[in-house]
């Protein structure tokens, strides 16, 4: 009797597999023309990524390097197509069949709730209509007043360690951004630069690692399993703590003294907008937006500022040019009080340096989109619906095809004539299309403010070249050994 049962069981499994493969025959046909590593039955190429979490990024970079674009990777039954040429990336960003974010983004819901990262369709449109204007150039001058005040404290804190010893600049810059971002969003400055936020900062770091860990562990993908797991419980604790804190800051805001009467927090701006036009925005959870903006803003801005300071430390002649530009635009002496949004836009060379940092160290090295319909990406190459498209910004931004000196730190890549001669989709640090970053003006302005405050007082020194920086990735890419710098006081005659 048992023999009969097993026989029937095996037949049933074989039939199910045949039916499954038959229903996917179109996908297999279309992927025949794509290059990629040899795939095993059932696992596909998933075992290539069976390694320590911190090594996954490096492996992905290598495997994408090894094949022409577009290339395919099978993660079990999931088809991932990686594209790394500017014209293919343009096709993806401009196609309506690839405008949806990949399913991986739903994991952000645990942390951010329903906001830009996790919503779709009309709901996402209503959210973006509310959020994007609150970060527009119209209000940037008032946000710069917040950054300016926090810069003063940053310079004081950096002054305490400006003795030529090796330090990790992330400690200071991260706390600076906590103050700037909390105050801009909620209206309250928590005093992170005095150490008041250290516990929350380590919780946030932990949340980002948990998020990345979930993305890379298929068994934690189903919500009901994740919620019951130790990681899920921890994530929920951190989320609650962060939300409570941001709510408290919003309540504390009115008693906070801002030196600019025009200043209004992003929260207040959104609230007023909803009150004025309730029919336009419908029901929106403002706290979800504030948590989303907080997590989207604090980590990348701080990361890019730190990378930039190391680059200036590694390339003293570039640091000198930035210093000279500060003198030309803001004059001599202490310039912090003179920093305005209008004058920040006159810092062209510094802007080029920031772009060069974003080229080499893109915060989002890969962007994932879900394909909902067939997409012809090349003559005779059609990508099938249901596949995940991986836009490899990391590769295109380091490719010899688009960059004169891809392996150098070379801000001249962003001279107007070089930009005009390059494919516009070869440099997309803030993404492109409908889902592009609404915070880029805020990011660039505050990063510039940091450098303009620091350089008139201090000289930065770092060892090696950028090629010596070994990178690891969680939700962002970071140097394995931290952001190591030596800081010295600038002697008077050189200022
Ligand atoms: C150097 C700093 C920053 C970089 C490099 C950066 C980069 C990006 C990128 C690449 C995306 C698209 C992600 C995707 O499509 O998967 C994005 C989206 C987003 N960013 Fe930024 N960002 C930065 C700073 C900021 C700041 C300061 C804010 C807010 C104040 C912000 C808010 C957002 C939001 C809300 C989205 C989601 C947009 C949407 O889905 O419509 N970012 N950012």
TrEMBL record:
<keyword id="KW-0503">Monooxygenase</keyword>
<keyword id="KW-0408">Iron</keyword>
<keyword id="KW-0560">Oxidoreductase</keyword>
<comment type="similarity">
    <text>Belongs to the cytochrome P450 family.</text>
</comment>
<keyword id="KW-0732">Signal</keyword>
<keyword id="KW-0472">Membrane</keyword>
<dbReference type="GO" id="GO:0004497">
    <property type="term" value="F:monooxygenase activity"/>
</dbReference>
<keyword id="KW-0349">Heme</keyword>
<feature type="binding site" description="axial binding residue">
    <location>
        <position position="437"/>
    </location>
    <ligand>
        <name>heme</name>
    </ligand>
</feature>
<keyword id="KW-0479">Metal-binding</keyword>
<dbReference type="InterPro" id="IPR017972">
    <property type="entry name" value="Cyt_P450_CS"/>
</dbReference>
<dbReference type="GO" id="GO:0016705">
    <property type="term" value="F:oxidoreductase activity, acting on paired donors, with incorporation or reduction of molecular oxygen"/>
</dbReference>
<protein>
    <recommendedName>
        <fullName>Cytochrome P450</fullName>
    </recommendedName>
</protein>
<dbReference type="GO" id="GO:0005789">
    <property type="term" value="C:endoplasmic reticulum membrane"/>
</dbReference>
<keyword id="KW-0256">Endoplasmic reticulum</keyword>
<dbReference type="InterPro" id="IPR036396">
    <property type="entry name" value="Cyt_P450_sf"/>
</dbReference>
<feature type="signal peptide">
    <location>
        <begin position="1"/>
        <end position="23"/>
    </location>
</feature>
<dbReference type="GO" id="GO:0020037">
    <property type="term" value="F:heme binding"/>
</dbReference>
<dbReference type="InterPro" id="IPR050196">
    <property type="entry name" value="Cytochrome_P450_Monoox"/>
</dbReference>
<dbReference type="GO" id="GO:0005506">
    <property type="term" value="F:iron ion binding"/>
</dbReference>
<dbReference type="InterPro" id="IPR001128">
    <property type="entry name" value="Cyt_P450"/>
</dbReference>
<comment type="function">
    <text>May be involved in the metabolism of insect hormones and in the breakdown of synthetic insecticides.</text>
</comment>
<dbReference type="InterPro" id="IPR002401">
    <property type="entry name" value="Cyt_P450_E_grp-I"/>
</dbReference>
<keyword id="KW-0492">Microsome</keyword>
<dbReference type="Pfam" id="PF00067">
    <property type="entry name" value="p450"/>
</dbReference>
């Amino acid at each position: 009797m048992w023999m009969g049962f097993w026989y029937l069981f095996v037949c049933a499994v074989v039939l199910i597999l045949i039916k499954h493969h038959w229903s996917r025959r179109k996908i297999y046909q279309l992927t025949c023309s794509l290059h990629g590593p040899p795939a095993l039955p059932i696992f596909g190429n998933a075992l290539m990524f069976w390694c320590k979490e911190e090594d996954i990024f490096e492996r992905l970079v290598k495997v994408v390097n090894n094949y022409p674009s577009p290339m395919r990777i099978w993660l079990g039954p999931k088809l991932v197509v990686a594209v790394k040429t500017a014209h293919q990336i343009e096709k993806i960003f401009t196609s309506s069949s690839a405008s949806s974010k990949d399913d991986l983004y739903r994991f952000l819901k645990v942390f951010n709730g329903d906001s830009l990262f996790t919503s779709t369709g009309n709901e996402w449109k209503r959210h973006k209509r509310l959020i994007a204007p609150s970060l527009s150039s119209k209000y940037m001058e008032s946000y710069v007043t917040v950054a300016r005040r926090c810069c003063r404290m940053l310079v004081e804190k950096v002054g305490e360690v400006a003795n030529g010893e090796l330090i990790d600049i992330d400690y200071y810059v991260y706390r600076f951004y906590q103050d700037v971002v909390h105050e801009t969003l909620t209206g309250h400055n928590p005093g992170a630069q005095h150490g008041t936020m250290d516990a929350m900062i380590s919780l946030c770091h932990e949340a980002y690692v948990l998020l990345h860990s979930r993305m890379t562990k298929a068994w934690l993908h189903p919500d009901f399993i994740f919620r019951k797991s130790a990681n899920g419980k921890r994530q929920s604790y951190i989320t609650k703590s962060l939300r409570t804190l941001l709510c408290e800051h919003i309540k504390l805001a009115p008693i906070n003294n801002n030196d600019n009467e025009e200043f209004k927090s992003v929260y207040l701006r959104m609230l007023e907008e909803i009150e004025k036009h309730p029919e336009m925005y419908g029901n929106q959870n403002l706290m979800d937006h504030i948590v989303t903006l907080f997590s989207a803003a604090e980590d990348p801005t701080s990361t890019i500022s730190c990378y930039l300071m190391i680059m200036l430390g590694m390339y003293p002649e570039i640091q000198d040019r930035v210093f000279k530009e500060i003198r030309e635009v803001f004059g001599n002496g202490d310039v912090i009080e003179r920093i305005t949004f209008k004058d920040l836009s006159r810092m062209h060379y510094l802007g080029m340096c920031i772009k060069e940092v974003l080229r080499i160290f893109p915060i989002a090295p890969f962007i994932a989109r879900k394909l909902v319909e067939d997409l012809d990406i090349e003559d005779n190459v059609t990508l099938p619906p249901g596949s995940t498209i991986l836009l490899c910004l990391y590769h295109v931004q380091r490719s010899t095809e688009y960059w004169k000196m891809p392996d150098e730190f070379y801000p001249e890549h962003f001279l107007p004539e070089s930009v005009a001669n390059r494919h516009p989709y070869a440099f997309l640090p803030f993404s492109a299309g409908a889902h592009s970053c609404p915070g880029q003006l805020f990011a660039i302005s505050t990063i510039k403010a940091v450098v303009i405050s620091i350089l008139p007082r201090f000289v930065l020194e770092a060892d090696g070249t950028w090629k010596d920086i070994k990178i690891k990735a969680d939700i962002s890419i970071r140097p394995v050994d931290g952001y190591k710098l030596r800081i010295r006081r600038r002697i008077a005659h050189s200022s």
